[in-house]
Amino acid sequence: MAREKRDDDGGGFSGKRNKSWREIDAQRGKSKYHSRQDDPQQQRIERSASYEKYKQAADSLFTGGALPEGLEKTFDPEGKRKQQKEAMMKLRELPDRKAWVQGVVEYLEKYPELPEDAYFLDSLLDHPKDRIVDKALAKLEALQENGKLPPNKAPKSLEQRLKSLELTGTDPDVQARAKALRQKVVV
User: Fold this and answer.
1) Confidence band, pLDDT 50/70/90 cuts, at residue 28
2) Band of the pLDDT at 141, cuts 50, 70, 90?
3) Segment (H or E) for 153
4) Most confident stretch, 9-13, 21-25, 61-65
5) Global confidence as pTM
């Protein structure tokens, strides 16, 4: 009587199961189902503490956070950037609108150059002084022209504040600029 051959029986004289082409490619690292993210060596590097510190330092450099010690001495030896950031944080913590209005005036006297922080500039659009609103609007326009204010990264309240300026602003030039910026930012 002949013995029936089954598919999972394996091939050859050894009796081992044959590997599929997918398994063979995965061993070679050429599989379309196997990615570099599955590479244990790469995962070990990405989990290391030094890699995490490197990523945090790079993120903080580009998002305006605290600079690493070595870079802080190079880029901001007097600590002006850190002081300005602390002053901005104090403005957010002020208890009422009257204190905020006065705090913004004092901030701009101390730091006349506005930061490239869209959220801070968005809040300045709500200031009662037209000069400050105009300055914040000009900075937002510059950010938008330089590609630093993409629609998906803009503050959610920016559209409403620009619309408010457009409808209630006293200066027709500011109204037109607010409308133009709103149309560019809101897609």
Assistant:
1) confident
2) very high
3) none
4) 21-25
5) 0.60
Choose among 173, 160, 101, 107: nearest CA to 134: 173
Share of the chain above pLDDT 90, in %: 27
DSSP string for residues in the chain: -PPPP-GGG-STTT-PPPPPHHHHHHHHT--TT--GGG-HHHHHHHHSHHHHHHHHHHHHHHHT-PPPHHHHHHH-TT-HHHHHHHHHHHHHT-SSHHHHHHHHHHHHHH--SPPS-HHHHHHHTT-S-HHHHHHHHHHHHHHHHTT-S-TTTS-TTHHHHHHHHHHH-S-HHHHHHHHHHHHHH--
- Contact between 64 and 84 under an 8 Å Cβ cutoff? The reply is no
| Distance (Å, whole) CA 55 – CA 48 | 11
Q: 3-state SS of the chain: helix, strand, coil percent to 5?
A: 65, 0, 35
